[in-house]
Amino acid sequence: MDDKQSKTAFIGLSQALTGIAGSLLVPQFDSMNILQTIYDGFVNNAGPYAAQVILERFVSLRDQGLGDDEIAGRILADADNGPVAASLTKLWLLGNWYPLGSQSNPVVISSNAYIQGWAWKIAQAHPMGYSELEPGSWAEPPPPLGDYITPTPQS
């Protein structure tokens, strides 16, 4: 898998794991270069071999015609790929890499990854000490949650 194919698979895997559309994870104008930051943090912390294995597993499941939810379920349930997938999900949400199978502290891969963490958007909040909003914006209703994620219907 070349670099372009790996990044395409990475975006698809990330979409499946987070439930956030790939087009939102990787906006057309990415001035903070979040895709590259998150991708590098993933490869550097999971290790190139583990990163390649989980991306190939994603491509295999996608090529079988499985949807995002089923792909995520199978990957997360896998003994080898599950911990990597969980750490990748946390990386997108929190901007931190949680080391696999250890109790050590998470690694902040960059201040921009933390600032752009999806947990803030989903919570309709902002990280302490940083906001793109103007003063007084709290008086306005937040954007609808559907702008960020598609809530799963309750059965």
TrEMBL record:
Residues 134-155 are annotated as: Disordered. It comes from the Bacteria. This is Sorbitol dehydrogenase.
